[in-house]
Amino acid sequence: MPGKVLVVDDATFMRAMIKDILTANGYEVVGEATNGAEALVRYEELRPDLVTMDITMPEMDGVTAVKQLMSRFPDAKVIMVSAMGQQALVVDAIQAGAKDFVVKPFDVNRFLEAVRRAMG
Amino acid sequence: MRSMSSDMSQYLAVFLDEVAEQVQKLEEGILALERNRHDPEILHTLFRAAHTIKGSSAAMGFERMNRLTHGMEDVLDRLRKGEASVTVDVVDLLLACLDALKAMKEEVAVHGREVTDPSGLISRLEGHGHGPSAPPGALVDRPEGGSGAQAIVPTEYERRVMQQAALHGVEPYIVTVRVVPGCPMKGVRAFMVARALEELGEIVGSRPSAEDLEKEQFGDTFSLIVLSREDPDRLRNTAASILDVAAVEVAAWKEEASHEGEGEPPPESRTSQEPQGAAEGQRRVSQTVRVDVERLDELMNLVGELVIDRIRLMRINKELAARMNHDRLTDELMETSRHIGRITNELQAQIMKARMLPIDQLFTRFPRMVRDLARQAGKQVEFLVEGRETELDRTVIEQISDPLIHLLRNAVDHGIETPEERLKAGKPARGVIRLKASHEENSIVIVVEDDGRGIDLERVKAKALALGLVSEEQLERMSDQEITELVFLPGFSTAERASDVSGRGVGMDIVRNNIQAIGGSVRIRTQPGAGTRVILKLPLTLAIMRALLVEVGQGTYALPLGSVQEIVRVRPGEVHYVNQQAVILLRQEVLPVLSLSALLGFDGGQLPRADLLCVVAISGDSKLGLVVDRLIGEQEVVIKSLGSYLGDIPGISGATILGDGRVGLILDVGRLIWMAADTRAGRRRMHRILEQTALLQPSEEPGEREEVGYAR
After folding, report:
1. Would you call B61 and A87 a contact, using CB atoms and an 8 Å cutoff?
2. Which among B94, B329, B485, B603 has the fewest CB atoms less than 10 Å away?
3. Which one of A84, A91, A113 has the shortest CB-CB distance to B7?
């Protein structure tokens, strides 16, 4: 069941790659954001089925964004995109309500599996 | 991103180990499946194995392996759901997939990437299933072994809490979770599993501790003690819904269960990564280390040198003591060298032990081979293996692989009859081949036995005659046993495919040569119509053996003690001649006698008219009296290869360094006995070769060799 995704990442390359993977697998990337604050605005506006959320971003990091997002939209589905060594932050995000996480550099199948499960 | 990312490479060794383990499970399972086509347990096991490889290959980015195992998993899933039935074709296909997996595993190990293209196999798999269907990971199985729950020994506190819970109708469960090997941030995965389960109950403990889980101080498995009113399936599915969870097992905790488990380690206990120690609530330092085999070999070589020096030391000591008339210094030296001797022996024994491997390493390869051979030959064979745990030196294991393959192939091709023949002979259609290993004093005995047609002695005779290997007269004098052993003669079986000739044949001379080359022996017993049994007797190690040292001319030779029956002194009057062959009567038994010097090609073979020193050498059931000049004594010799430039010398299996630093040649008694039967040809060959080996004995000029013989 394809769905609408909001891709949040400050790196253009990562956004492009995630978008490509999702699009190639039948998902619709409805929007992109480059930091947490922007993500909150875009979420409210687009109401996507899923958000992929980078952790380290300028202005507002991914974990803070998830906390604020979940308090306003408890049904939001978020997958964290973490770098290596950010275990503690990932745990924070999951405690805040993120559905799952992947670690960069990630395996495409693994990423898609996380997306599929989070949407299901 | 598609290939193995850098953070994965550190898991490669673990991944390969796991694949090897699962491949072995697949192999055993597929073969078992062929015998019990409806056994759901086997199908589950196979499914789990394919599933595990699928998961970990995806994690490691080995896409071909992943696709292949995904396809296998689909077919196995359909089989276990009863949507398809197990046919010989399916089994063949699964075995073909298995071969591809093995190949890929090797490729990954050697080149770091897959080379084999599984596309053909995948489309065949899709022909059997509906092609890849379920999303990977949606079907989650149990951790193999299933004993994770039993491995938990609760602390006093946990036990009390669990007892209390049980009293209040809340079930205590042990949830054992295995994550995909090499998955990133497995600590977070563990956290997610715990978090999900906490929605269904209360977690009162974990193995390893929560702290260790967080620090990722665990292998691929961890266990949680969960108190819950939910049914186990709910817990299982919940834990399984977390990404990167490869397997989940939920077991209700029973007070007694925890005790039973202690004496019975789970099957994975061989891999040190498994958190066995964690079960005690704290990490236990591993008691084993992995050592490169080459290091052990080197150590063994060094000990070999030490053994040589020990012998030299004793010898020098003796001489010195005689010269100094046993004063205090030589006595002390004697004591010290004795001590060194004892320590060396101990060292040698310990290293030998470290080099021992269970023969299972070798035996596991055979069920598949026998199965394939039987299928090709249109025969039904039940293959039984016994004594897998028998340990022997790894070099011996390497050396017997080919001979065993020969013997098993013979058993299938020539031993076991077709089902029709067997039924006609009043036997069950399915033949039995038995492979048995056991320990016997200082050797290992391996038996390959079939209940097939046995060896047809008449046909062996006819063939041996036709090939000119024996004469009619010789045949008449031969016992049935000796006739049977003709199959070991070089040339007996290589002349044509032996399938129509006898119950045995192909390459038996090669088998005997290989086994004798490592100081072992081969015997063969057969009963027409009832079967054949081949018995291999092998030394525990190849590096060092006990030998009788004898002198002939100026050379010293070592006879493996295993092939020396006794030493007799023969008076000139006791030697008789039968057909120009010297013989003696030894306890009513006629024993052919030959001078070793003649056999080695130093002289014409005339026995001197004097008292003779005769070593009764034995190989299999054949005996020969070898006349030598002098006995030196019994000692341990370190076997050295002759080196490739001398090649294979009939009658000589190796060399050793003697106490005085000279080279002694180790005699291959089995070959010598055969050569004695064919003395003239053998002598010519030997002479040529020994001229070359003069290189080994620098004290002798080749020109002097003519004078070496003692009976000219």
Report:
1. no
2. B329
3. A84
B51 catalytic? Reply is yes
Angstrom distance (rounded) from CA B137 to CA A112: 12
Structural contact between residues B204 and B158, judged by C-beta atoms closer than 8 angstroms: yes
Distance in angstroms (rounded) separating the CA atoms of residues B48 and B141: 6
Q: pLDDT value at position B562?
A: 76
Kindly state the average pLDDT of the residues B323-333. 83
Burial class (CB in 10 A: 0-12, 13-18, 19+), B378: exposed
Closest CB from A103, A108, A116 relative to B1: A108
Mean pLDDT across the stretch A25-53?
A: 94
Phi, psi for residue B446 in degrees, rounded to 5: -120, 130
Annotated active-site residue in B51, B70, B128, B406: B51
Give yes or no for a contact between B149 and B176, defined as CB atoms under 8 angstroms apart.
yes
* Phi, psi for B227 (deg, rounded to 5): -100, 125
Determine which one of B18, B27, B73, B114 is catalytic.
Answer: B73
Burial B74-113 (b: 16+ CB within 10 A, else e): bbbbbbbeeebebeeebbebbbebbebbbebbebbeeeee
Q: Is the peptide bond before B208 cis (omega within 30 degrees of 0)?
A: yes
Nearest residue to B232 (alpha-carbon basis) of B196, B203, B200: B200
Q: Which residue(s) pair with B249 in the sheet?
A: B176
B66 touches chain A (CB under 8 A): yes
B150-154, B357-361, B375-379: range with lowest mean pLDDT: B150-154
Q: Do B58 and A109 touch (CB under 8 A)?
A: yes
Catalytic one among B410, B414, B449, B513? B410
Question: Alpha helix locations (H) across A36-119?
Answer: 36-46, 62-72, 87-96, 108-119
Most confident range (mean pLDDT) of B238-242, B347-351, B651-655 is B238-242
Contacts of B185 in chain A (CB under 8 A): 82, 87, 90, 101, 103
Question: Which residues in A lie closer than 8 A to residue B191 (C-beta atoms)?
Answer: 91, 94
- Tokens 């062929």 identify what position? B34
Contacts of A105 in chain B (CB under 8 A): 1, 5-7
- pTM of the entire predicted model: 0.45
- In angstroms, the CA B517 to CA B538 distance is 10
Alpha carbons within 13 angstroms on the beta-carbon side of residue B17 total 14
> What is the SS3 assignment for B296?
helix
Smallest CA–CA separation between A119 and chain B, in Å?
12
Q: Please, what is the end-to-end C-alpha distance for chain B in angstroms?
A: 82
Distance CA B171, CA B226 (A): 8
Going by the DSSP 8-state scheme, the letter that residue A78 receives in this structure is E
CB contact under 8 A, B136 and A17: no
Integer angstrom CA distances of residue B289 from A18, B192, B292, B417: 44, 34, 10, 48
Query: Exposed (0-12), middle (13-18) or buried (19+): which is B572, by Cβ within 10 Å?
Result: exposed
The size of the A-B interface in CB pairs under 8 A is 55
Tokens of B463: 């063939």
**Strand, helix or coil for residue B615:** strand
Quote ipTM for the complex: 0.88
The reply to whether B709 touches chain A by the CB within 8 Å rule is: no
Locate the chain A residue with the closest alpha carbon to B240: A117
Beta bridge partners of A52: A7, A79
B185 and A90: CB-CB below 8 Å?
yes
How far is Cα B125 from Cα B132, in angstroms, rounded to an integer? 9
Q: Which of B657, B660, B654 is nearest to B693 (CA)?
A: B654
Instruction: Looking at the complex, report in whole angstroms how far the Cα of residue A6 sits from the nearest Cα belonging to chain B.
Output: 21
Mean pLDDT of chain A: 90
pLDDT of amino acid A36: 93
Cβ neighbours, 10 Å, residue B291: 10
